[in-house]
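Per reviewer request, we include the raw input and output of the structure prediction for the construct analysed in the revised manuscript.
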Amino acid sequence: MQIEEYVTNRLQSLCNKHRMTRYRLSKTTGLSQTAISKIFSGKTLPNLYSLLLICEALGITISQFFSENDTDSVALTEEQRELITIWASLPSNKQDLLLKFVHILLESEL
């Protein structure tokens, strides 16, 4: 199965499960209806940030999106979700800095 087909099928399945229409998904994520339509049709793949917005709208993690089994999930706190959202919005050089900072914080706790 192609990745486009997997993403399309998984997104359709999750939207049905969560009773989320394409219109509501667009409004909840802030993504255009055109972008949502292209993802649903398999014409384009969502970038990481868009996928994160979609997962947040569905109340799942990216890990759960790609999980074969819906019971293999990790519940995230609101703070953890916020960190992931912030991380995804940062350019790679700032992600590197943030990761280094976290490592420094961990070392100072020892």
